[in-house]
Design goal:
692 residues
Length: 692
């Protein structure tokens, strides 16, 4: 008898965080898909719980397999692709004719491949003609991106490979609980003395040599204080500062007012702990300062990121072969997703929509006059807040995002979505946002598609398909092509093959800050490790930025002039404690995928609130009973977990859950003026016991 055909296997990457761990998938539709970790540099043969269980989402019982269109009776009913796409195109055209192009909007995602992000931006600006496009990465990495651009002239999450961290002697992790959010990263930190900055005694803080536990919303004061101590204790690298930076004196004039005792009074971090941390950072050149969402998700997130960059510059770390500063990008393609055109103010290659030369270059690649490109539009929350208003968009296309759960002031955003004349969602599961839509379009999952992603270290990676999609499921590229053609665009302007889209992306990025023009599928498939910028096909890529000069015209990094101003909302007699939100090990982002995985849901089946026992007693709460967490904007229900290690003035809630368990029902929509980042990390709340 002939041998059975071999079981299909492919090398690809995990669908979750920006580490983009290497994986090997085996299986087909007839048999369960299994996953093994690959010996890829960032994960070195390891995966977290989410990575090991990722294939289960491929077989989700409620997988979207056919378009849905909302009928006159208000129910979502199955429809043919032609009917669904005609409904979308006719609705978009009608609204644009009546209200203008900016009455149409697009909301993308940080998990989309580079090819999808690129074509989505092109679709919005040419097929729709709208300025209103942004994406959920605005909620994740935008503050550090703004601070990095200001300081270094370019934004790349880690300007060095992850593997460089393995030789670190000291690593400061500010607002980054990587032991839960990026577990495979911890193996690169095993030899380092960790300094954790977190209001919680998190899984990462438990492994730290020093834990700085500031009150939520005071990280900027802490960073200013650490810079003050570095200067007064003679730890500033004066030769580096003089040779490679500018603006030190202005930054120090701000930090001079943040003496240790004042910092302790504002943040709660003891003076001796501040001093210990600074000396650990300064006693070796093998030192890294890494920031995460806990630093960024504030109305002063850009300034806070900049303050930690100031500290790194004062210690002489960025642009050296043995240390540095980096931002731990969160979403799977959080880096590439913000480089190629789905951000409201950017064009492909990290080009600016307001720069005439950048506009001319991209317009030339697209074959249109520069004047056809709209200017910058609303940023993510501003866009969502304007939906359905007389001055705002009347139609929205959502691709790769779930703002009903992920946006701040969630009840308000849900109301704005409901006010739209047309809501279209492309997804592979019926997310909470998809269930509100007028049209739902079923699209491919990660293991069913080809493309590229860019991980947190700026390395461009190949996503490879193991499975063919279900019969009636199409790719996002197909969807954009089909809608654009129905709106009168030439078919050839919207390629549907990822390789063809990437070739166009290469041309559009050429000469930009994020230059991919030397990267090709063939080079990636041959196993080359290619970090941008990579300006030609003979170039080896740039794993380490800034070794010779920074990306400003004068080659110098810039200190920032920043001052602490505190959170948007103070506690009060009615709302007497701070609430902060974040991720937990078992779940990812809005939970639309991980809540469909049996093991992960069993591990963390419902929302919870971590409360200090003294705080719980004050509010009449008992361990494992239900409580309502309420801010001036609304409240959510969670199960109480007593935790004696959390600050008594702070409670913690994960944001992965839906319904009345949405943490973003109480979060604050105050925005960072530079980045547009909402203040997820600090809200004034009260706690009330609830009967079961």
């Amino acid at each position: 008898m002939p041998s059975p055909p071999p079981t299909p296997t492919t090398e690809t990457h995990c669908p979750y965080c920006a580490l983009q761990c290497g994986t090997r998938l085996t299986g087909d539709r007839a048999a369960a898909v299994t996953v093994e970790p690959a010996d890829f540099p960032v994960n070195r043969g390891r995966l977290c719980h989410k990575g090991w269980t990722a294939p289960e989402v491929l077989a989700a019982t409620d997988r979207l397999r056919t378009p849905w269109v909302r009928g006159r009776d208000g129910r979502l009913l199955t429809a043919s692709w032609d009917s669904a796409l005609d409904t979308v195109a006719e609705g978009l055209d009608r609204i644009r004719t009546r209200h203008g192009a900016d009455a149409l909007a697009v909301f993308g995602g940080g998990g989309l491949t580079n090819e999808k992000a690129y074509l989505l931006g092109k679709f919005a600006r040419l097929a729709l003609g709208t300025s209103n496009i942004d994406y959920n990465g605005r909620f994740c990495m935008s503050s550090a991106a703004a601070a990095g651009n200001d300081a270094f002239g370019v934004d790349r999450g880690l300007p060095f490979p992850v593997t460089d961290l393995a030789r670190a002697r000291t690593v400061l992790l500010a607002g980054a609980n990587v032991a839960e959010t990026m577990p495979p990263l911890m193996q690169h930190l095993d030899k380092a003395r960790l300094i954790a900055v977190d209001p919680r005694y998190s899984a990462t803080a438990r492994r730290a040599t020093v834990h700085l536990q500031p009150a939520p919303g005071t990280d900027l004061a802490l960073a200013l204080g650490l810079l003050h101590l570095a200067a007064t204790e003679g730890l500033v690298d004066k030769a580096y500062v003089g040779r490679r930076t500018s603006g030190f004196e202005t930054a120090m004039s701000r930090a001079a007012d943040w003496w240790p005792e004042r910092v302790e009074a504002v943040t709660g971090v003891p003076v001796q702990t501040q001093r210990t941390a600074v000396h650990l950072l300064a006693d070796s050149p093998d030192t890294y300062i890494l920031t995460g969402r806990g630093v960024e998700q504030h109305r002063q997130g850009t300034a806070t990121s900049a303050a930690f960059i100031n500290l790194a510059l004062a210690l002489g770390l960025p642009g050296t072969p043995r240390g540095g500063y980096g931002c731990l990008t969160g979403q799977g393609n959080g880096q590439g997703g913000r480089e190629h055109g789905q951000k409201s103010d950017q064009l492909p290659g990290y080009r600016s929509l307001t720069d005439p030369a950048d506009r001319a270059h991209v317009a030339g690649v697209w074959g249109v006059p520069p004047g056809r490109l709209p200017g910058p539009g609303r940023r993510a929350y501003e866009l969502l807040d304007a939906l359905g208003e007389d001055h705002g968009p009347r139609a929205l296309l959502v691709v790769g995002s779930n703002p009903v759960v992920s946006a701040p002031h969630s009840a308000h955003v849900t109301g704005r979505l409901a006010a739209l004349d047309l809501l279209v969602v492309a997804d592979f599961v019926p997310s909470e946002t998809a269930r509100m839509a007028d049209v739902v379009l079923p699209v491919t999952q990660w293991a069913e598609e080809e493309g590229t992603l860019t991980n947190l270290e700026g390395r461009v990676l190949r996503r490879r398909a193991l499975l063919s999609p279900p019969p009636l499921v199409r790719s996002d590229l197909d969807v954009l092509h089909d809608i654009a053609v129905r709106l009168g665009e030439p078919a050839e302007r919207y390629p549907t093959e990822p390789r063809e889209v990437f070739e166009e992306l290469r041309a559009a990025s050429r000469g930009g800050r994020a230059d991919y023009s030397g990267i090709t599928y063939d080079r990636l498939d041959a196993g080359e490790a290619l970090h941008w910028p990579c300006p030609d096909t003979e170039h080896p890529g740039t794993p380490r930025l800034f070794l010779d000069r920074f990306a400003h015209p004068d080659g110098r990094a810039r200190f920032a002039d920043v001052e602490h101003d505190g959170p948007a909302e103070d506690t009060s007699a009615r709302y007497p404690v701070h609430a902060t939100t974040g991720r937990i090990l078992a779940h990812y982002q809005s939970g639309a995928q991980t809540r469909r995985v049996t093991e992960l849901s069993a591990t963390a089946p419902e929302p919870f609130v971590e409360v200090h026992p003294d705080t719980a007693a004050r509010f009449g709460l008992a361990d494992q009973e239900l409580a309502r967490v309420t801010s001036p904007r609304g409240g959510m229900i969670a199960r109480v977990r007593l935790d004696p290690t959390i600050r008594p003035d702070t409670v913690f809630v994960p944001f992965h859950f839906t319904g009345d368990g949405r943490a973003n029902l109480f979060t604050h929509p105050a925005l960072d003026p530079r980045s547009g980042m909402p203040e997820f990390k600090v809200s004034a709340v009260r706690l009330d016991p609830l009967p079961e």
